[in-house]
Every structure is written in C-alpha cells, then in structure tokens.
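Async update (no meeting this week)

Hi team, since we skipped the sync, here's where things stand on the single-chain job. The sequence we agreed to prioritize is pasted below, unchanged from the tracker. I ran it this morning and attached the output directly underneath so nobody has to dig for it. Comments welcome in thread, and please keep replies under the output.
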Amino acid sequence: MELLLFLPCIILLGIITSIQDVKFGKIKNIWIIIAIAISIIANTCLITFYWVNGMLNLGYVTEMLTNLAFAIAVGFGLWASGIWTAGDGKLFIAYCALIPLSVYSFGYQKYFPAFALLVNLFAVSAVILVVFMLFKLRLKNIKNIAKQAKFEPKKVILTITNIFAVYWVVQILLSFLGTDSYLLRIFATIILLSVVQKKLKDYFIYIALALSVLRLAVDSSVYSIQFLMNFIIILISWGVFASFASGTLSKLGREIFSKEISIKDLKPGMVMGDNKISAEPEGLTKSDIQKLKRMKLKKVRICQTLPFAPFMFLGVIITLIAKGNLLIAVMNLF
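Output:
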C-alpha cells in the first residue's frame, strides 16, 4: 500500500532527472524540492491515518527520520569528498525520502535502511562503468597508465595509519547509535576518510597518529586475528574505492573517456582530465577557466563524463524489485 502511494512520484522523478542529466548535465533543484515536499505530505497523511486508527508505530516514525538524517549525511559526505556532484547528493536524499522503509526487506539496516539502496547504487554503477571501460579500452591506454604507476611505501604507511584511526572512530559512533554492522562500518570509514583527507589534507596524519596510539593503548581487540582479517578487508575496500576515485582505475578511466581541447573552447561545467587545477565535482567554473588561461596553456584534457542520474534511477528500480539489498536477495536464492 505505502509503495503504491509513492511509486508514481519515484518513477516521474527518475525519468525527469535522468533526461535532464543526460541532456543538460545538471538536475534542477525544483524537482528535488517537489519530491521531498510530496514525501513530507504523504508521510504526514499516513502517520495521521495510523494514529487516528490506533495503529501508529513510533519505532517506524523514528527510523524514518533517522534514515533521512543518514541520507543527508551520506549525500553531503559524498559531495564533500568529490565523488558526487551536489545534484547527485540531493537526488539521493529525495529518493531516500520517497522510498517507504517497508521496501527494504533484504539487508535491513536499523536506523539507516536506505543503506541497501546505497549498496545497490554503487554495485550497479561499478559494473556498468567497468563494462564501458572494457568496451573502449585500448592497449595504449594501459601502457600510458603503466608508465605513471609507482609504489610509494610512505604513502602506503600513511594510508594504513589513517584507516586504522578513522575505522575506530566510526566503530565507536555506530556502536553509540546502535546501528553497527560490518558492511556499514566499511562504507562509513571510506566516506569519512575521503572527506577528512580532502579537507584537512596533510594535517590529518597528526590527528590519525594520535588516535592510533590511543587505540593501541586502550583497544585490546586490535591484537586479535579477527581484527587483522577485518582490517585487511577494509584496506582492500579502500584500495578499490581509491582506484575508482583517484587511483589507477580513475586514471585509466580519464585516459579512456577524455580528449584534448583548446583552452579557448573551455566552458563552465567541463570536467578536467588532469590535475592542472583543483576543481569541484560540478566541473570548471569561470574562475577556473581564467586560471588555466593565465597558465598560458594551449590545450587541456577534458573528461567525457557519464550522467549519474540514470544510474541512480536504475539502482532505485533494482532496490524496489529486489526488496532491499540486491546482493543479499541473490544470496538468499541459494
């Protein structure tokens, strides 16, 4: 019943934002505002109906609010870390507001049921992007990336220290909130670490070192085989994420989905395919273009970006069909 009430809005939001993102490369705020307003009105009507008829579940209302709070935190975090644009983050929040909690049958995460949607989004997006990359991959692309690859022991040690510290903070916070799970810990650690590294840059290592020393002194669980196994999984997860975000896979993607254009042809919103300047996920601004022109460059490499709104809509449809976490739903079949 609840899903039928929200389904027309979910489908319309998905179709409209997908078309806008493909055609114009942006998502208008008006559709996000309308979707969230409809969610507020519809949920208020449902809560009132159940309250009047003596069927109101306060636990459901609480989790609906905490789910939205987590969605806002994730949307902001992924934008702040440079993974999503602001539009993508707001669209995710709108979907989380519209999808009833009763949809998440498989992989239900207390206080943040929409975590299943997040897992589905990244799983589907990763598969599609890898297929696109393999389809366009050429030997010269691999050779160019191989020339740039190098092993940096110092960077590896710093990364391990940062993850060791952040993972502990995340574990404490999630335990305090009563919504701790290993998968959520991994994801939260990756997001928080990517945000603090971007915002604090080299200064964060001093905080991480202090937290690591404190953890070694007070947390006896770090001296177990179980912890070592879990920590290795987190390191691998971070390695995969970093490769997609700014590592080898990201460089390979830029190599494949990019082209050189003249400085005079640059337009706001274009995404740089190299690191000549630091730009936001939304792409170059007029100020960024002026900086590049002052550098007296003739050509720069621009990424041919893929719109993310259709991927997100596909992830939502899969979540509705699978009734939650697709991976867990598939595992339950065997």
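Quick observations from my side:
DSSP finds 14 helices and three strands in the chain.
The mean pLDDT is 81.
Reply here if anything looks off.
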